[in-house]
Amino acid sequence: MALALFDFDGTISFRDSFAGFIRYLVGPARYRLGVLCLLPVVAGFLFGFIRSWRAKELMSIYFFGGLNVKELTETASRYSLEELPKIVRKEMDHLLEWHKERGDTVVVVSASIDLWLRDWCRSRGIGLIATELEVKEGRVTGRFLTRNCSGKEKVKRIEKELDLSCFDHIYAYGDSPGDRAMLRLAHEAYYRGKRLNP
Length: 198
Hints:
The chain is α/β, with parallel strands linked by helices. Helix content is 47%, strand content 21%. The chain is built from ten helices and eight strands. The protein has helices at residues 8-12, 17-26, 28-37, 39-46, 52-64, 69-82, 90-102, 118-124, 152-161, 180-183, and strands at 2-6, 105-113, 127-131, 133-136, 139-144, 169-174, 188-191, 194-195. The strands form two sheets. It has a six-stranded mixed beta sheet with strand order 3-2-1-6-7-8, sandwiched between helices. It has a two-stranded antiparallel ribbon with strand order 4-5. Strand 6, helix 10 (180-183) and strand 7 (188-191) form a beta-alpha-beta unit. Helix 4 (39-46) packs antiparallel against helix 5 (52-64). The radius of gyration is 17 Å and the shape is globular. The two termini are 20 Å apart.
């Protein structure tokens, strides 16, 4: 039995789903205003004063903080089913189907938030491991409930949720440095479409 691990943003998709969902949620004007307000965070990230996961969390707090979790989940579900299919690479769509037809266990492992990936994954019969948001008294705080699912954290989450000894072959697909730890788990790893190991 084989396992296929896929990063989502930049690997399955050709566009970032995090920014895409925010624009979908608040509209283009409020998105641009928010980006302007968050320029100090962006600058801090670019100059190395703020780590990437923290910059992402601060964006999440700004745009999602205080929202009703039920309403946010409903909007995320619509985005997942209506918009995500539009940004999936055709070649990756075929690759996902190839793995499923073989009977492989297919799991998306993403630093994006689970809310807007969940229903797309369910509709495709694909598992999901992703970053989750904190909820208090029915409202999203914007803070991460789990660690940002990137780098070594991807491996920790995979090993926590899957028994890798059950698989005789592991495939992994990624496109960024945050995927490299996951790629090292695989017998057959692909980085931006190119195989890394013989």
